[in-house]
Amino acid sequence: MPDLLEVKNIETYYDLVYAIRGASFAVKEGSITAILGNNGVGKSTILKTIMGQIEDQPDKGIIEFEGVPIHHKDTDEIVRKGIAYVPEGREVFEELTVHEHLLMGAYTRKDPSGIKQDIEQVFQYFPVLKNRTNQWAGTLSGGEQQMLAIGRALMLRPTLLILDEPSLGLSPILVKEIFSIIQEINSKGTTILLVEQNANMALSISSTGLILENGRFVMKGKSKDLLEDKDVKEFYLGIKSETSAKGYQRWKRKKAWR
Amino acid sequence: MIDLIQMIVNGIAVGSSYALMGLAMVIIYKTSEVPNFAQGEMALISSFFAMMLLTSFNISVYPAFFLTFVFAVLLGVFLEFAILRRAKEPNVLGMIVITIGIEMVLLGFVSWKFGAEQKTMPFPIGPYDSFIIGDIFISKLEVLTLVAALLLMSVLYLFFKYSKLGLAMKATQQNSVAAQIVGIRTNRILMMTWGISSLVGAVAGLLISPTIMHPFMMWDPMLKGFAAAVMGGMTSLPGVVIAAYMLGIIENLFGGYVSIEFKTVVAFAIIVLVLCIKPSGLFARHYVKKV
Ligand SMILES: Nc1ncnc2c1ncn2[C@@H]1O[C@H](COP(=O)(O)OP(=O)(O)O)[C@@H](O)[C@H]1O
Ligand SMILES: [Mg+2]
Which residues 250-289 of chain B have a CB within 8 Å of chain A? Predict the structure, then answer.
């Protein structure tokens, strides 16, 4: 499968904060690709850079979607190319109804019958939303808002769906449900780029995994290999190996990755 | 009894121009969350533009008004594009200061170009053409203003509620990041709202100009319109209109029965009262964030 999205050596600053320090990766068409990493390492920044959300960034590097450069383009133009984005923290319109959200998700489309179909499809994925059709998003629970944010993104009929920590703040049952729906969306042909701290969940549904530390990727591989990797197990899956009990030893090994 | 009815009619009449100015402010506030203190002067310069077309260029009334509306839209668009958008990392206070700056520049320009004395606007309806029903007087201009206010309110209400563009404007106001990621060109949306708002203001200005035409003609309607917008909750279109009429009526009754000197101050006493009792405005149906 060809690469749908290609990110080559990007560097991103927030003013003087050097957040992404030369990151490269590719998302294969039809895949689920997961970016993992702890809090504050730059996962969201990579996604925001791809979506053109940080003014004048990336400072260096190239981002290509379907072989066409998309860096330094406006967000709405990137969206129109078929990339949908579910940002961290959901970002719903608090005083728009569920139905209005789905209409806004299809803002760039002009096929009323297709839009209607896709609304039904979203309600099929998330039946709770159907019962809340005319309710303001601000009155929904966190889980419902997350579903709404995903539903709104799907209304674009995206080629690539980018999700930033969809499991954040949700109960384990809900996390499972959302991940299985993400898998289902993927099986219907949408390529998915997923950012997660919940490494276990993310690696179990993705085909490729990337591990980010301090603005650089330190590991890339097949998700099933990463799940078996000793370091990944220890630092991201919370499974301790018996050999390195002492803190400084772990720190040393972590250091050696870079 | 006749006095009372006449006062109420006068209140409704003056309330219409407050309503138009209030609507203009609410439209901008809805998307930008900025109270635009230049609203009155934007209407002012549009009115003087119309007068210039009518008197200096001898253009006939309807084409002149049409050109004035085009001018008003372009003025709003220009101010948003050339000035407000340039503000880096804007906060509400900074934006307010910018609108006050624009206000002073426009006011200064009109005073310098046209002078401060009262002008006559060659309007098709004179300020004294009136209907007399029984013993009640109402000027034709006031009726026209009433019709314009109600009509514009209805059109705008339907536009925000049912059109895709109106919905996109609401979305932009509520969360501009989210608006961008569904593909809304938020910059363009802001520009359009300034254009529409400026147009509504120009309608108010034109309807006021046969009666009062000098650089400070918009002061009172603009401040009262703002008062009505605050009372109505800043975002509700019907709210601002109802508040504007309440304000006009209360003001006139107060002037008639209590004190004519303090008539215009009443509006602000009412604002204070409203803000103390129901800070979100009388008609706002605002969703309150859960903390
Ligand atoms: N708006 C911002 N301004 C300045 N620094 C920021 C901003 N957003 C994020 N950062 C910094 O960039 C780094 C990466 O942040 P982020 O991408 O949000 O991490 P993650 O999503 O992996 O938790 C952090 O050190 C964070 O403090
Ligand atoms: Mg993040």
Answer: 286-287, 289
Q: Do A139 and B178 touch (CB under 8 A)?
A: no
How far, in Å, CA of A108 to CA of A62, rounded?
25
B216, B231, B242: which is closest to B267 by C-alpha? B231
> Number of residue pairs across A and B with CB atoms under 8 Å?
73
Mutate to test the interface with A, among B160, B181, B234 (most CBs of A within 10 A): B181
Q: What is the ipTM, given to two decimal places? A: 0.83
The CATH code that applies to domain B2-277 is 1.10.3470
> DSSP label at A224?
H
CATH classification for the domain delimited by A31-52+73-257, as one of 3.30.1120.10, 3.40.50.300, 3.20.20.140, 1.10.10.10: 3.40.50.300
Name the pTM for this structure. 0.80
Distance CA A228, CA A1 (A): 25
Task: Please check whether residue A111 touches B, CB under 8 A.
Answer: no
Of the partner residues B164, B171, B181, the one whose CB lies closest to the CB of residue A79? B181
Q: What is the pLDDT of residues B87-124, one digit of tens each?
A: 767 788 888 888 898 988 988 888 898 888 888 888 88
Cα–Cα distance, B210 to A91 (Å, whole number): 49
CA distance A93 to A91: 7
